[in-house]
Amino acid sequence: MPATTTEPLRIAVLADSDTRWKWGALTARRLAPEGAEIRLDGFLLRGRSTPTARQLQETGARADSLREVTAVEFVRAMGEEPCDVLVLALVGGGVQAMLHGLRHAWGSGPRPVVVTGYVGVVYEKLADGLLLRHGADLVLANSAHDAQRFRDVYEGVGADAGAVTEVALPFLGGAPYTGQHEPFTVVFAVQPSVPDSREDRAYLLGRLIGHARRHPDREVLLKLRSKPGEHTTHIEELPYQKLVRGLNPPANFRLVYGHMGEVLDRTDLLVTVSSTAALESLHRRIPTAVLTDLGVREALGNHHFLGSGCLTSWDRLDAGELPTADPAWVARQGVASGGGSYEGAFDAARARIAALLASSGGLPPLDPYYTAETAPGYLPGILARHHLGPDGAPLPGAPAADQAPGPVRQIVRRAARGAYRHGVQRVAPVIRRMGEL
User: Fold this and answer.
1) Distance (Å, rounded) from C-alpha 409 to C-alpha 154?
2) Which of 23, 260, 319, 392 has its CA 20 to 30 A from that of 275?
3) Terminal CA-CA length for the chain
4) How far is it, in rounded angstroms, from Cα 33 to Cα 8?
């Protein structure tokens, strides 16, 4: 039921990583009507990517309440703690599980407007990810380019494409670039899983350090996403912090953490393979380089930048090149600043949510494309990973929402998570290398 004029708009956000929490919380605030009072309740889905306190602090996204839950606990919480708008900031499988779990919990009764979308560039698993998100009232597309692609996928399988709503990335902003800083600052924005091999990552690191040596008058920064032992959306098996050990980089080379926007405040050249940081940089008109050194490949995601004017190589950057982005391409990607286009990017989504909340007959039950009829060999496995049965009901043995873990269980959980991360980051790579001998 929508909030009255005397009550704040109640928005809940469920996220499974630091980057998705940032996207979800900031999107929630952009979806609220201009000047409206809101209450934002945050939920972190327990799993391998659950953010640490440090990661949450670095996102800069705040909530009135924030707690960690399992999927079943969240579904039960939504039955007991009603809200007006729910933002699902999860991987596709998580969104699909929540849609079915919430459909079972809410039935044909009152429910909030359900919103989902993508954190950044959609360069892989387009059909898979979109169909797993189908069933939400709004599926947000970060650009006109994405909105058309999303509709094509839904219409291609005969699913309703009416939920696709064009917006923009909610975290774009900051002062436009006005000229070189002193010293000139080059920032390489790393990605947890792109590229994924030790050789490719060592190559990029070596070229970055080489650039610092070639240009001692420049400050060269390696912008890191997470510290060893922390996870973001993707597992990082070979953190650059470890690869840099023993390389003896020059004094003008540094590793930095922190909020990306604050780093961009002093950036003169942003370099990446395909990070969403490139879109933040382009929005601020900072010279942005998308590397072709490892090829232009779908697996790297840099194919997304075809036609942008940003594709280049380390050789050219070493020689002093500063790429110039194509204005038309930037505008199609929803990151063009100026002219009011970004400022009004969420107007259509706000209007759609307002209309749904004002619906006199209430909202119909959630209706995902994937059902026991359309995907009987796929859907049950997705739901089971979140302790939900084929009908969306909690499986026997799933934890109850009121069963808070005791001190011993909390210690065991932390130890298990640490062991899992150790296995992913250290043991698994060794086993893979042995298998290649």
Assistant:
1) 43
2) 319
3) 61
4) 11
Under 8 Å between Cβ of 39 and 10: yes
Nearest 5°: CA angle at 28, between 22 and 108? 125
d(CA 74, CA 347): 29
Residues linked to residue 44 through DSSP beta bridges, in sequence order: 15, 68
Nearest C-alpha neighbor of 227 from the set 218, 236, 215: 236
Q: Residue written as tokens 């739901």? A: 383
Q: Render pLDDT for 125-150 as a digit per residue (tens, 0 to 9).
A: 999 999 999 999 999 999 999 999 99
- Max CA distance (Å), the chain: 68
pLDDT tens digits, one per residue of 91-125: 999 999 999 999 999 999 999 999 999 998 888 89
Least Cα distance to 409 among 77, 55, 15, 70 occurs for 70
In contact, 340 and 346? CB cutoff 8 Å: no
Q: Where are the alpha helices (DSSP H) in 81-173?
A: 92-106, 126-133, 144-156
pTM of the predicted structure, to 2 decimals: 0.84
Q: Which of 61, 68, 73 is nearest to 102 (CA)?
A: 73
